[in-house]
From TrEMBL:
Protein name from the UniProt record: PDR/VanB family oxidoreductase
Pfam family, one: FAD_binding_6
EC number: 1.-.-.-
Keyword set, alphabetical order: 2Fe-2S, Iron, Iron-sulfur, Membrane, Metal-binding, Oxidoreductase, Transmembrane, Transmembrane helix
Domain FAD-binding FR-type positions: 7-108
PROSITE patterns xrefs: 2FE2S_FER_1, 2FE2S_FER_2, FAD_FR
Length: 333
């Protein structure tokens, strides 16, 4: 889902910062122009990083004092494109610029039942939503999926708030989520047609839910998601993009996207969401040496397998075990 509106940029100051799980830092910003942050909103933040400025989107976990204080939480990722390192380097008192709340993942009113599924740090997109559903007295379930409790942010808080409406699946406790089981339960319930599922997490989890949802012929409009340019199936590594139509070759470092690398090299491209949702940045794949790691939710599984297109903003190439850098030859449309 692309952002529906772009709020204005404003100054913000870090007023609190602490680790809330292994590798997850909670940052509280005090903003210049307070604005109510509804569940599902995010802010775009401009972050200083070495010789450049990065724009990254983060969910508003909590909005207090009429939207003056916004809480974000960011996981430090070894394969990040620079944004998470920059957030983890912020200290109380630091100033930065941010948009006001932007709505790209709205919570609908009136569903018969709500199922919220968060994988890892994806919980940040669903904390405010779950609280709103509890306050409304809605029929809802919050499903948390993670590798280990150590890295799962807000677990105790959510458990206290949602009680038995919270379901936790942890890999290192051998309680992984069965996606066919979860979606099968939804499909078999009498209110299946009015159940909405909201998800945010790794692309593999969201793809599995999407496939199962389609297999059960559940209404596609009842499946809603937030991606933030999800992590892929492979660790990010450097690779080469060849553009024969422009007679150019551009190296894409592990901490940047094809889109950013092309733009930095002066190659103009179309883009909008910059997180693999809208398809505006789609380019034709002419040839690949290595494997394409599709990280978008715009292309279908079949299209990803055919691999004739990729989303420049999130997808990458990896060499696998060959030892050489991967390369991908693209035709920009
Ligand atoms: S800019 Fe939207 S999918 Fe790439």
């Amino acid at each position: 889902m692309a952002a529906q509106s772009q709020s204005r940029w404003q100054r913000a100051q870090v007023v609190d910062a602490e680790l809330v799980a292994d590798g997850v830092r909670r940052i509280v910003l005090e903003v210049e122009h307070p604005e109510h942050a509804a569940p599902g909103t995010h802010v775009d933040v401009a972050l200083p990083a070495q010789d450049r400025q990065l724009i990254r989107s983060y969910s508003v976990v909590r909005s207090e004092d009429g939207g003056r204080r916004l809480t974000l939480s960011v996981q430090l990722s070894p394969t990040s494109r620079g944004g998470s390192q920059a957030v983890h380097a912020l200290a109380v008192g630091d100033e930065l610029t941010t948009t006001g709340p932007v709505q790209s993942f709205p919570l609908a009113v009136g569903a018969g039942r709500y199922v919220l599924v968060a994988g890892g740090i994806g919980i940040t997109a669903l904390v405010a939503m779950a609280s709103a559903l509890r306050r409304r007295g809605a029929d809802y379930e919050l499903v948390l999926v993670g590798r280990s409790r150590r890295v799962m942010a807000y677990l105790d808080e959510l458990s206290a708030e949602h009680g038995d409406r919270l379901r936790v699946h942890v890999d290192d406790e051998a309680t992984p989520l069965s996606v066919p089981g979860l979606v099968g339960e939804i499909a078999a319930a009498p209110n299946a047609a009015t159940t909405e599922l909201y998800m945010c997490g790794p692309i593999g989890l969201m793809d599995a839910i999407r496939s199962s949802w389609t297999e059960h012929a559940l209404p596609q409009t009842n499946l809603r998601f937030e991606t933030f340019g999800s992590s892929g199936r492979f660790d990010a590594e450097e690779f080469l993009v060849r553009l024969p139509q422009l007679d150019r070759e551009v190296a894409v470092a592990a901490d940047t996207s094809i889109l950013d690398a092309l733009n930095a090299a002066g190659v103009e491209t179309l883009s909008d969401c910059r997180k693999g949702e809208c398809g505006l940045c789609l380019a034709k794949v002419v040839e690949v040496e290595g494997t394409i790691d599709h990280r978008d939710v715009f292309l279908s599984d079949a299209q990803k397998q055919r691999c004739t297109n990729l989303c420049l903003c999130v997808s990458r190439a990896v060499a696998g075990y060959t030892g050489d850098h991967a390369s991908v030859t693209l035709h920009l449309t």
